[in-house]
């Protein structure tokens, strides 16, 4: 038995996958959609403001939105790891799933850079104008989260993805 | 009522189009997820602000993003109609008799009535006059809680459509 099978067949992943309880697979899957809506939805509002929409919001006040994006991310890290462990063999060889993880890693890195370079910028914190990189981070965040959603959905259709890109199951059995 | 709805969806005659074009379904799913994030990001964030979170952002300013949520909602009506009318396996009737979908539509209706209450009972006028860190009145908080429960309930029931048996099992049906 390899490590993938060992994880997939341990108690919690088996419960997530096989329990008939509504709080197993279906609730965790729903949480994943809710977390997605929170992080992507709140990010979109922050990005649109940074791009110049609704200027009556003080850009400094947007800092208050970060905790909500972390709430969304935490919900999805928990639900996502649960779903991954329950379906590790297929997911870990799924091209679109791995691409989605890459986009999420880039989106979170982009978010942290936005926080460090813009929201922790002393001149900006003191009430100065929005640093010029803000627009780039905002635009990138929209592109990266959009890409993550597209890849996440397409990861459920590996046969279509393979027919279109020629990339099937990556490695493994 | 289910009979006449079924006739309507059959009249749309999308079964062949969806059945023969493999990409229609995943593309509509991707759009449905974007619409969901737009609703939660706009309406959900306004609700959260009325409950006292993210003070510093005026409620009136957040309301300016709500048209984006309305666009998301319209996208989801169109894609949702395509899912029901185009269901390649059991046809529209399979969805129309699905308890999770019925509860989802009930929650959408509740969210809609709640939104009308927000705009037409004077609550919106009260919150629109608040300063950036102002505290919303109790009526607005009730609207916000109903809205959040309804929209996150919509997501939960939406995910359960594919797992209706799990819902029936949980309800002892």
Count of helical segments of chain B?
A: 10
How many runs of DSSP E, i.e. beta strands of chain B? 0
Number of strands of chain A: 0
Strand content of chain B: under 5%
Structural class of chain B: mainly alpha
Average pLDDT confidence of chain A is 96
What percent of the residues of chain B sit in helical stretches (DSSP H or I)? over 70%
Report low-confidence residues of chain B grouped into runs of 5 or more.
none
Summed up, the domain count of chain B is 1
Which keywords apply here?
heterodimer; A: 173 residues; mainly alpha; 9 helices; B: 173 residues; 10 helices; elongated
Describe the secondary structure blueprint for this structure.
The complex is a heterodimer of chains A (173) and B (173).
Chain A: H1 3-8, H2 11-18, H3 25-50, H4 66-86, H5 88-91, H6 95-119, H7 122-125, H8 133-154, H9 158-165
Chain B: H1 2-12, H2 15-20, H3 24-50, H4 59-63, H5 66-86, H6 91-96, H7 99-120, H8 123-128, H9 138-160, H10 164-170
Walk me through what this model shows.
The complex is a heterodimer of chains A (173) and B (173). Chain A is mainly α and 173 residues long. Chain A has one domain (3-165). Chain A has 9 helices and no strands. In chain A, helix 2 (11-18) crosses helix 4. The longest helix of chain A has 26 residues, at 25-50. Chain A starts with a helix and ends in an 8-residue tail after the last helix. Chain B has 173 residues and is mostly helical. Chain B has one domain (2-170). Helices cover 77% and strands 0% of the residues of chain B. Chain B has helices spanning 2-12, 15-20, 24-50, 59-63, 66-86, 91-96, 99-120, 123-128, 138-160, 164-170. Chain B is elongated, with a radius of gyration of 18 Å. The model of chain B has no long low-confidence stretch (mean pLDDT 97). The interface between A and B is large, with 40 and 41 residues.
């Amino acid at each position: 038995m390899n490590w993938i099978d060992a994880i997939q067949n341990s108690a919690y992943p088996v419960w997530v996958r096989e329990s008939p309880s509504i709080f197993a697979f279906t609730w965790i899957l729903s949480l994943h959609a809710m977390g997605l809506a929170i992080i992507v939805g709140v990010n979109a509002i922050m990005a649109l403001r940074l791009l110049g929409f609704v200027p009556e919001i003080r850009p400094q006040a947007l800092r208050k939105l970060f905790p909500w994006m972390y709430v969304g991310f935490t919900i999805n890290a928990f639900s996502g790891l649960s779903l991954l462990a329950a379906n590790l063999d297929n997911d870990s060889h799924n091209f679109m799933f791995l691409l989605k993880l890459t986009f999420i890693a880039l989106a979170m890195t982009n978010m942290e850079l936005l926080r460090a370079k813009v929201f922790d910028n002393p001149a900006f914190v003191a009430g100065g104008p929005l640093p010029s990189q803000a627009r780039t981070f905002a635009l990138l965040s929209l592109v990266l989260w959009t890409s993550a959603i597209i890849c996440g959905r397409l990861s459920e259709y590996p046969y279509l993805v393979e027919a279109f890109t020629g990339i099937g199951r990556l490695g493994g059995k | 009522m289910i009979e006449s709805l079924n006739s309507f969806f059959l009249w749309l005659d999308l079964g062949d189009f969806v059945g023969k074009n493999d990409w229609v379904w995943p593309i509509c799913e991707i759009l449905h997820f974007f619409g969901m994030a737009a609703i939660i990001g706009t309406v959900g964030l306004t609700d959260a602000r009325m409950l006292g979170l993210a003070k510093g952002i005026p409620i009136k300013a957040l309301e300016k993003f709500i048209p984006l949520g309305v666009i998301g909602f319209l996208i989801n009506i169109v894609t949702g109609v395509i899912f029901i009318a185009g269901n390649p396996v059991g046809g529209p009737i399979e969805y129309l008799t699905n308890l999770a979908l019925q509860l989802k539509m009930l929650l959408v209706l509740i969210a809609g009535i709640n939104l009308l209450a927000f705009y037409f009972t004077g609550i919106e006028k009260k919150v629109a006059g608040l300063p950036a860190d102002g505290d919303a009145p109790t009526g607005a908080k009730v609207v916000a809680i109903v809205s959040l429960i309804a929209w996150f309930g919509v997501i939960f029931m939406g995910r359960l459509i594919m797992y209706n048996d799990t819902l029936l099992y949980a309800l002892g049906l």
